[in-house]
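Email to the structure team, subject: Carbon-nitrogen hydrolase model.

Hi all, the expression group asked for a predicted structure before they design truncation constructs. Nothing fancy, just the tokens so they can compare against earlier work. One-line instruction: predict Carbon-nitrogen hydrolase, return tokens.
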Amino acid sequence: MSKVKVGLVQMSCVSDKQANLDKAIAKVRDAAAQGAQIVCLQELFTSLYFCDVEDYDNFNLAEAIPGPSTDALSAVAAELSVVIIASLFEKRTAGLYHNTTAVLDADGTYLGKYRKMHIPDDPAFYEKFYFTPGDLGYKVFSTKFGKIGILICWDQWYPEASRITALMGAEMLFYPTAIGWATDQDEETNQDQYNAWQTIQRSHAVANGVPVISVNRVGFEQDGAMKFWGGSFVANAQGKLLYLASHDQEEVKVVDIDLNESDYFRKHWPFLRDRRVETYSPITKRFIDED
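Reply from the structure team: attached below.
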């Protein structure tokens, strides 16, 4: 398949898990009505972003994967003939939890999951309290509408993650994400942070010659202390912005992606061909020093 229509769902969330799931499903339907073939939901879309505090009660938000949410989304995927990318809080077993994205194919088949590899621990983003680092490795899923690589939020800062996923054959990289501004920050800092976030992801598109689709949440949370900055975007295989969402509105947008561009850009800017793979072994070190 040379062209694919990708749907982005950028939305705000509330404290009611079922209400968020119902809202997401309604927006998937909207995207499908606009012609979307693959629909990506934002990180942890069934809840508010709960990692702002270390609270044991929040573990009650987790569920099995496959489980209730994937069952509901599988039925929608089959009904609408769309691929759905769904980021969920996974309860693997008693006391073991992951930040996980499930992939449902266009016939409703559950294709598998990717568990977030890089876990942050910053003020208001205390994810290491909740999430065990992923142990499934990097993943590519063969869907009806192409081979998709999934990475999650904090993974977006790491070129190693995008490179490995692209080398596994991903034709598109999807990043469900949840990131925002502290509302007591100045506007210059806000823009510097957003530009860094967008730039690093667009660089993954350039370096690997694949489109990047990043879907972020939007709206005020944490009692107004955090404004999730939206700004979801699609970049083509040369890093060109094909779509940029607002910072303060919910959006459902369908964007056309030409997968043939990857071959064109990789031939004209042959970054994959020119890699000196025999020189890269030091990258597995924590830091290159004498110890």
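Helices lie at 17-33, 68-80, 159-167, 187-208, 260-268. The mean pLDDT is 97. Ping us if the truncation boundaries need rechecking.
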